[in-house]
Amino acid sequence: AVVSTQSTGEVVVNWKIYKSPCIELTKLILLLAILFLVGLLPWIDNFAHIGGFVFGFLTAFVVLPHINYSEEDRIAKMVVQIVCGILAVILFALLFIVFYLAQGSTCENCAYLNCIPFTDSFCQDATMELRPRVGN
User: Fold this and answer.
1) What are the Cα distances from residue 110, in Å, to 45, 86, 119?
2) How much helix, strand and coil, in percent to the nearest 5, is found in the chain?
3) Contact call for residues 41 and 32 (beta carbons, < 8 A)
4) For 93-116, what is the mean pLDDT?
5) Rounded to an integer, what distance in angstroms lies between the CA atom of residue 123 and that of residue 119?
6) Alpha-carbon torsion, ordered 34, 36, 37, 39, to 10 deg
7) What is the pTM of this model?
8) Residue 16 gets which letter from DSSP?
């Protein structure tokens, strides 16, 4: 998911270079949609797909090279790089804290983001009970 998201960011950054950027963007969005739909199967974590999408999109603006068309364009892209870099660091820190401190989610419908029960027993084996470790 991260690679296809960075490719999406690359298409957005270099929009003027592509012969048909809408077609390229549509192909990448369809690929991301397929990956998301695969994540609805048991034991495939869609939360990781979504996190990878957001993090990949932010880091694409930071690390991928870009072409400057004018001084204003260079400054604008530098500002976007700085803002996306800061947001990526904040996202990483926030997700790190959530992973280790807030595992006991009370969201009942969040389970449907990872697995849609097509039958009564379809997602039964995919349940995971995460509990924080107490002591050693």
Assistant:
1) 11, 28, 18
2) 65, 0, 35
3) no
4) 74
5) 8
6) 130
7) 0.66
8) T
